[in-house]
């Protein structure tokens, strides 16, 4: 180390303290110099702060998918509006935030069964029993200021949790669930120590690439640490039985992101649902006595919300092409004490009858059978969080747009004149969102965009050729716009969500 440089810096920058500094040991002077150099670099912008909030790697995608998304978020309209540097910054923030959980857990309250305040108090008591804590302060439950059937629970994380030598590896979906407050169910465990017994304390890792062999005793592939837990089952009970394994395998005691587990917590009064998904039901605006269609209804969260908003008065028809998923919708409806929901196993593309005089309880239905239609379309799901890796190809990503358009044709035919159609996805591409709106307005002159209430997200994204007045009527939840910013509680909850898109149409 150049002693003259150290002396020069201290004389110039800290002249008052030079006498004290000069009396210190040479080793301390060297340490001081490195810290001071790092400070200057940070002040000058050499040390990037883009990743300040990132504890996990950016979402892992196939290179072709990453480049496709880059072209979407850096299209000509966006570049002209915000410039290449800001567009690139937003895109990098998007890749980072997708691998992290939102900062709030959103709970939809069954306000058709009890007042929000009563549900709030019961939930607090239930969570106090779960955490075995007498303190009220350790459980924070906030009513949403603008959505009157939503309770918000702040997520604490990332927390300073020490990794242990004993490791359990779980599948990526299981790891994502742990980051949202779940325990590790046995079927999600891929690898464990050879002699793991009930009561062992273990570190839990998520397999990023799905390459861990089930039953392995160790794993050296790409993985991320999600917290520590206590084994509820022996290794032999998880891997050495011929029967499908069920139940909690690892109970999380030190998760990296602390969020309450809602397994069995007030099942008839609370429903875990992402905030934008709750907003969809309110935007649809169901009224008592109406007949409403939910075209792609599984797992039934939005279906049940529609019925609750109607006061369970009217008829909600839920269509789903998978029989197993239909049963799940029925179970949710029964649990939430909703009797206005009717479920049918049907591909919604084929839900329209060619005979307008035909009157049947189930599909196919005559044209113009419904007052309102929700098309929460099958999509690429790129807005879901946390998601650390997606293995699908660009061809698979592009396969959703034609399917969504077929469903859109059926939706418009089934909707009455003067009726409302809401189209939504949990993805972030232009092709599945704003481009679909532009296509629909051109294809169906009877459709016009409508204002949305409540409005918590941003306006539509540039790039689909829609004019500003139409973009302002769309609602896009863009977590990258708030990623890394400090904000008030309500603002943070509204911005730090999954990626989501909503469009509302009126059939003239």
From TrEMBL:
<dbReference type="InterPro" id="IPR015947">
    <property type="entry name" value="PUA-like_sf"/>
</dbReference>
<keyword id="KW-0812">Transmembrane</keyword>
<keyword id="KW-0489">Methyltransferase</keyword>
<dbReference type="InterPro" id="IPR018314">
    <property type="entry name" value="RsmB/NOL1/NOP2-like_CS"/>
</dbReference>
<keyword id="KW-1133">Transmembrane helix</keyword>
<keyword id="KW-0949">S-adenosyl-L-methionine</keyword>
<feature type="transmembrane region" description="Helical">
    <location>
        <begin position="31"/>
        <end position="48"/>
    </location>
</feature>
<dbReference type="GO" id="GO:0003723">
    <property type="term" value="F:RNA binding"/>
</dbReference>
<dbReference type="GO" id="GO:0001510">
    <property type="term" value="P:RNA methylation"/>
</dbReference>
<dbReference type="InterPro" id="IPR049560">
    <property type="entry name" value="MeTrfase_RsmB-F_NOP2_cat"/>
</dbReference>
<feature type="binding site">
    <location>
        <begin position="296"/>
        <end position="302"/>
    </location>
    <ligand>
        <name>S-adenosyl-L-methionine</name>
    </ligand>
</feature>
<dbReference type="Pfam" id="PF01189">
    <property type="entry name" value="Methyltr_RsmB-F"/>
</dbReference>
<feature type="binding site">
    <location>
        <position position="355"/>
    </location>
    <ligand>
        <name>S-adenosyl-L-methionine</name>
    </ligand>
</feature>
<dbReference type="GO" id="GO:0008173">
    <property type="term" value="F:RNA methyltransferase activity"/>
</dbReference>
<keyword id="KW-0694">RNA-binding</keyword>
<keyword id="KW-0808">Transferase</keyword>
<dbReference type="InterPro" id="IPR036974">
    <property type="entry name" value="PUA_sf"/>
</dbReference>
<feature type="binding site">
    <location>
        <position position="320"/>
    </location>
    <ligand>
        <name>S-adenosyl-L-methionine</name>
    </ligand>
</feature>
<protein>
    <submittedName>
        <fullName>NOP2/Sun RNA methyltransferase 6</fullName>
    </submittedName>
</protein>
<dbReference type="InterPro" id="IPR029063">
    <property type="entry name" value="SAM-dependent_MTases_sf"/>
</dbReference>
<dbReference type="InterPro" id="IPR001678">
    <property type="entry name" value="MeTrfase_RsmB-F_NOP2_dom"/>
</dbReference>
<keyword id="KW-0472">Membrane</keyword>
<feature type="binding site">
    <location>
        <position position="376"/>
    </location>
    <ligand>
        <name>S-adenosyl-L-methionine</name>
    </ligand>
</feature>
<feature type="active site" description="Nucleophile">
    <location>
        <position position="426"/>
    </location>
</feature>
<feature type="domain" description="SAM-dependent MTase RsmB/NOP-type">
    <location>
        <begin position="184"/>
        <end position="508"/>
    </location>
</feature>
<comment type="similarity">
    <text>Belongs to the class I-like SAM-binding methyltransferase superfamily. RsmB/NOP family.</text>
</comment>
<dbReference type="InterPro" id="IPR023267">
    <property type="entry name" value="RCMT"/>
</dbReference>
């Amino acid at each position: 180390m150049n002693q003259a440089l150290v002396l020069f810096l201290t004389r110039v920058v800290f002249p008052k303290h030079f006498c004290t500094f000069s009396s210190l040991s040479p080793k301390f002077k060297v340490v001081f110099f490195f810290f001071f150099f790092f400070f200057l670099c940070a002040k000058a912008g050499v040390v990037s702060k883009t990743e300040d909030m990132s504890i996990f790697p950016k979402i892992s995608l196939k290179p072709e998918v990453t480049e496709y998304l880059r072209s979407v978020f850096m299209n000509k309209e966006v570049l002209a509006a915000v410039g290449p540097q800001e567009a690139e910054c937003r895109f990098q923030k998007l890749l980072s935030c997708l691998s992290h959980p939102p900062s709030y857990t959103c709970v939809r309250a069954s306000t058709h069964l009890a007042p929000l305040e009563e549900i709030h108090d019961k939930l607090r008591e239930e969570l106090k029993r779960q955490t075995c804590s007498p303190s009220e302060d350790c459980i924070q439950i906030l009513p949403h200021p603008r959505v009157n059937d939503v309770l918000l629970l702040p997520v604490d994380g990332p927390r300073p949790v020490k990794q242990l030598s004993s490791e359990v590896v779980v599948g990526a979906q299981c790891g994502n669930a742990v980051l949202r407050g779940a325990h590790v169910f046995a079927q999600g465990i891929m690898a464990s120590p050879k002699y793991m017994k009930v009561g062992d304390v273990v570190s839990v890792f998520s397999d990023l690439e799905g390459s861990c062999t089930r039953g392995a005793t160790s794993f050296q592939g790409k993985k991320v640490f999600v917290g520590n837990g206590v084994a509820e089952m022996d290794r032999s009970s998880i891997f050495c039985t011929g029967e499908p394994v069920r139940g909690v395998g690892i109970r999380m005691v030190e998760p990296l992101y602390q969020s309450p587990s809602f397994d069995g917590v007030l099942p008839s009064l609370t429903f875990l649902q992402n905030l934008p998904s709750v907003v969809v039901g309110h935007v649809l605006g169901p009224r008592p006595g109406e007949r409403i269609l939910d075209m792609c209804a599984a797992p039934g969260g939005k279906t049940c919300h529609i019925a609750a908003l109607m006061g369970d008065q009217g008829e909600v028809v839920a269509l789903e092409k998978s029989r197993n998923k239909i049963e799940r919708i029925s179970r949710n409806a029964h649990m939430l004490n909703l009797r206005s929901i009717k479920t049918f196993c049907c591909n919604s593309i084929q839900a329209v009858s060619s005979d307008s005089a035909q009157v049947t309880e189930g599909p196919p239905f005559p044209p113009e059978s419904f007052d309102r239609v929700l098309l929460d379309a099958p999509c690429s799901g790129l807005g879901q969080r946390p998601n650390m890796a997606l293995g699908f190809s660009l061809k698979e990503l592009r396969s959703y747009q034609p399917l969504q358009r077929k469903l859109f044709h059926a939706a418009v035919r089934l909707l009455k004149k003067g009726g409302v159609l809401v189209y939504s996805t949990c993805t972030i591409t232009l092709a599945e969102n704003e481009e679909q709106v532009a296509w629909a307005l051109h294809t169906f002159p009877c459709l016009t965009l409508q204002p949305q209430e409540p409005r918590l997200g941003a306006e539509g994204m540039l790039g689909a050729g829609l004019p500003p007045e139409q973009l302002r009527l769309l609602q896009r939840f863009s977590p990258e716009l708030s990623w890394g910013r400090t904000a008030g509680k309500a603002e943070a909850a509204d911005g730090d969500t999954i990626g989501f898109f909503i469009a509302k149409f009126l059939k003239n």
